[in-house]
Amino acid sequence: MKKRLLWTDSSLIDLQLIYDYISNDAETYAPVFISELMEKVDAIPEFPEIGRKVPEKDDKNIREILFNSYRLIYKISSDRIEIVSVVHQRKQL
């Protein structure tokens, strides 16, 4: 069964910060990058376990997908999937 995909407020703030950072150097590339990053999660509702388990967490329901140098971290629950954070790969949770 396909689950609902939700972006948390904090993950949307993460996207805005990434957009702002990229647009400082490449204003025309920033919207393209964010769009591609958001498309990366399209398969998650149908295949929730597509991402790997987050190494810092010992929870099979907290997973991540990598996109360029960013980690898209999401949590699987019974009825939905929440994108909880988008962080740079160098940053630990």
Question: Could you characterize the architecture of this molecule?
Answer:
This protein has a single domain (4-88), classed as YaeB-like fold (2-Layer Sandwich). 30% of the residues lie in helices and 30% in strands. It has two helices and five strands. The protein has helices spanning 9-25, 29-39; strands spanning 4-7, 52-53, 62-67, 70-76, 80-88. Helix 1 (9-25) packs antiparallel against helix 2 (29-39). The protein is globular, with a radius of gyration of 13 Å.
Would you give the CATH topology? Answer: YaeB-like fold
Q: In order across it, which strands form the biggest sheet?
A: 1-5-4-3-2
CATH class: Alpha Beta
Return residue spans where pLDDT drops below 50 for at least 5 consecutive residues: none
Alpha-beta content class: alpha+beta
> What's the total count of β strands?
5
Helix and strand pattern: EHHEEEE
Biggest sheet statistics: 5 strands, mixed
State mean pLDDT (0 to 100 scale): 93
Please tell me what the overall shape is: globular
The total domain count is: 1
How much helicity do the residues have? 25-40%
Rg for CA atoms: 13 Å
Please identify, by name, the CATH architecture. Answer: 2-Layer Sandwich
Q: Name the CATH superfamily classification.
A: RelE-like
Describe the protein's topology.
Blueprint: E1 4-7, H1 9-25, H2 29-39, E2 52-53, E3 62-67, E4 70-76, E5 80-88
Parallel strand pairs: 1-5
Antiparallel strand pairs: 2-3, 3-4, 4-5
Helix pairs in contact: 1-2
